[in-house]
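Here is one chain, start to finish.
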Amino acid sequence: MRVMVFAKIPANAPAMEPTPEMLEMFAAMDRYQEELAAAGVFVAAAGLKPEADSKRIVDEGTERTVYDGPFAEAREVVAGFSIWEVKDMDEAVAWAMKAPNFGSGAVEIRPFFEAADLAGFVSPEELATPREGERGKLGVA
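Its structure:
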């Protein structure tokens, strides 16, 4: 089972500065990612720049509007993500509980759709044929 793990922080979290505490948090996260990789769970991960560097595209009927970040209504923002390959949601939760605790924020774990989940949307032939190339590397999309 493949899951995406979102690391969320409060929208009003202070800007990242290379303080000794922040450097230790980065080192702790690096050790954790190495543990995930050694266990064969790690697929991919990345940190994300602050919301101020973001764009949001909102569909409103047939129109689309682009908004610049930061977004005033946000209470929490995604600071990073990981993709893990685990046997089930219990294993994903167990790994998430081993992550360094930085004192605020949250972790959200969401499973990817598996091919069988899409049976009502695609033909049996499409389900039986794995995607090729770049699209086939990370999921069924």
